Amino acid sequence: MINAKDYFDIGIKFHGHKCPAMPLGLRAGAAAMNALGVERSQDKELVMVVETGNDHAAGCFVDGLMTVTGCTYGKSNIKKTYVGKMAFTLIDTKQQKAVRVQLKPEFFGKMLQSPFVQQRKQGVPPQDILANITDPLVEGVMNRAEEEFLAISPVFDYHFEKTKGTFDTDLCAACGERVFVHKLQNVDSKKICIPCAEKEK
Ligand SMILES: [Zn+2]
Ligand SMILES: [Zn+2]
Q1: Residue 181 belongs to domain with CATH number
Q2: For residue 178, how far is its CA from the centre of ligand 2 (angstroms)?
Q3: Does 104 have pLDDT greater than 90?
């Protein structure tokens, strides 16, 4: 069993400030892992598809998800679909099973009415919001029963095909920088990098 609380301190350190959305990601990620019966992803055993965007409140959610699941942008086993929902699918690539978790709509609606979010709307940076506003919210997220705020789908079959990353590089014929070969462009029978190819257009 994964306990979100074990990842709280590293989550705060990685994320950079204390807010309710990062802990929501810890809790939701842990719930998905427990539903699938999986451990934290050491390599790319787990893959995550997150439905948030990059231009709305509570995007911090994804930092909590990355912290607890080990699905990270560096390993490229996470991607966002930018549809603007507080939901994600966690895929167990070994068992070819997945689960979708979303924040319950009513719960998330209420959270957006919190004094923390009111201050954020007025432009106060999260790290400057007083602890007597932030702390009770964060405590609430870390201790609330899952069924109060998470809608967890039944585990379902998910066909996931692994692709192999390239280890091969070459030099761009224009700028001389080293590039992974699958990103080199063929322009006038020269192999050049994407930025150089754009310049030639
Ligand atoms: Zn945050
Ligand atoms: Zn180049």
Answers
A1: 3.30.60
A2: 8
A3: yes
* Cα–Cα distance, 5 to 27 (Å, whole number): 8
> Which two three-digit tokens encode residue 119?
């201050």
How close is the Cα of 198 to the center of ligand 2, in Å?
A: 10
CA 138, distance to chain mean position in Å, is 19
pLDDT in tens, 52-75: 999 998 999 999 999 999 999 999
Q: Which ligand is nearest to the CA of 26?
A: 1
Nearest to 128 by CA among 12, 18, 11: 18
Report the amino acid identity of residue 16: G
Ligand 1 center to 59 CA (angstroms): 7
For residues 178 and 28, give the distance between their C-alpha atoms in angstroms, rounded to a whole number. Answer: 40
Claim to verify: residue 60 and residue 139 sit in the same structural domain: yes
Q: How far is the CA of 156 from the centre of ligand 1 (A)?
A: 31
Name the residue range of residue 93's domain: 4-157
Asked if pLDDT for residue 27 goes beyond 90, the answer is yes
Give domain status of residue 164, yes or no: no
Nearest ligand to the CA of 120 is 1
